[in-house]
Structure formats: C-alpha cells, structure tokens
Amino acid sequence: MPSKRKLQTRRSKHASPTRTPRYSSQTARERATYDRTTNLVTDLRRGEGSYTELLRKHHLSSRTARKYAGRDLLGGSRGKPVRASKADRRVRVLMFPKAVGDVPVRTRSSRDATKLSEFRHDRAKLLRGKLSRKDFEANWRGVIVADQEVFADSSAIFAMAHADVLKPETLYASTGPAR
Questions:
Q1: pTM passes above 0.90
Q2: Is residue 65 situated within a structural domain?
Q3: Residue 25, SS3?
Q4: What are the backbone angles phi and psi of residue 12, rounded to the nearest 5°?
Q5: CA angle, corner 139, sides to 138 and 144, nearest 5?
Q6: What is the pLDDT of residues 99-143, one digit of tens each?
Q7: Would you place residue 60 in the very low, low, confident or very high pLDDT band (cuts 50, 70, 90)?
Q8: What is the 3-state secondary structure (H, E, C) of 118-173?
Q9: 117-146 burial by CB neighbour count: b if 16+ within 10 A, else e?
Q10: Can you give the residue range of the structural domain that contains 48?
Q11: Mean pLDDT across the chain, nearest whole number?
C-alpha cells in the first residue's frame, strides 16, 4: 500500500484545471483580463503577429491566456504553433445603438460584434458628412443585431450627436475604472 504522502502528490498532479468564473460574477480586474484575452484571440485570428508578440502586446502570460481563452486557443503542444479557433462564443459587452443613446449589451457572437462595428463606422461617416442620410438609412433600417433592431434614424442620430449623448470612443463597454 502506498504511503499517504505519495497519494497526496499523485492526486495533486492530476487535479482538474480550475474554471474561470462566470462573466457576470467576475470582478472588474478579472473582466479586464478577460477582455484583453478576447482581444488577443481576435488579433491572433487576424494574423496581427505571433502568439508571443501578442501576449506581450496585451500584457498577458501564456498561462493566463489559456485560463481565460480555453478552447479558443488551439495548438501549442508538440511543436505546433498556437492559433485561434475559427469561431468563438466569448462574452462581449458591446455598446448597442438605441433611441436613448448607446447602451451596453452582452453578446456571445463575434458576428454581432463585427456588425455593430460596421454600424458605428457608418454612423461616424454619417456624422462627418461622408455618407448621406439616405444611404445610411437604406443600409441600416430594419437590421437585426443581437436579437434587437439597430437604431438607424439619421435625424435623431444628429440630434443625439449635438447633445453629446453618443459615445463614439469605443465599441466595447467599459469594464473597469479608466487608467
């Protein structure tokens, strides 16, 4: 019969990995790390650089990236380079256009994030005069993103812009205090 000490070390070697807490119960610091990991996966998918370069860029260790990205990072063992999976279901808190301004909405779809980004680019073009009201409304009237219709009334958008209701800085909602 093995000694008690050997049993303890044997168990610790085969311990199950700890899961990251649900997004809704994460602290502000954990959410910031989660968001940096999401950016790492996105940059890795786009081919912005090598895995180690992107880890440095996003201020992450390989262990932390694996902890938060999990199944979205493939490879990295037996000499294979680390790459991102083709699709992910990561939680993102995006600024969604509504009649009252941009409100934070949680989504798991990278397609929704891309569509909202395109909307915000077109809205910025509209506000700068690079896109006509008619073209903007033709492109975005009745478009559903994240199971909701985007707000595409150009006259109301201009009124909100003059009242400083719109937040054009970023697509993603703030997860913590500003640095």
A1: no
A2: yes
A3: helix
A4: -70, -30
A5: 115
A6: 888 888 888 887 888 899 899 999 999 999 999 999 999 999 999
A7: very high
A8: HHHHHHHHHHHCCCCHHHHHHHHCCCEECCEECCCCHHHHHHHHHCCCCCCCCCEC
A9: eebbebbeebbeeebeeeebbeebeeeebb
A10: 22-84
A11: 83
Compute the C-alpha angle 116/121/127, nearest 5°: 125
Where are any strands of DSSP class E within 27-100? 73-74, 83-84, 92-98
Place of tokens 């650089």: 49
Number of domains in the chain: 2
109 plus 158 within the same structural domain:
yes
Instruction: From 95, 97, 172, select the one nearest 127 (Cα to Cα).
Output: 97
Q: Which of 60, 84, 108 represents a domain boundary (last residue)?
A: 84
Q: State the DSSP code for 18.
A: P
Instruction: Enter the tokens of residue 142.
Output: 């009745």
Please name the residue that has the structure tokens 């958008």.
157
Q: Domain check: are 40 and 76 in the same one?
A: yes
Domain-ending residue, one of 84, 113, 131:
84
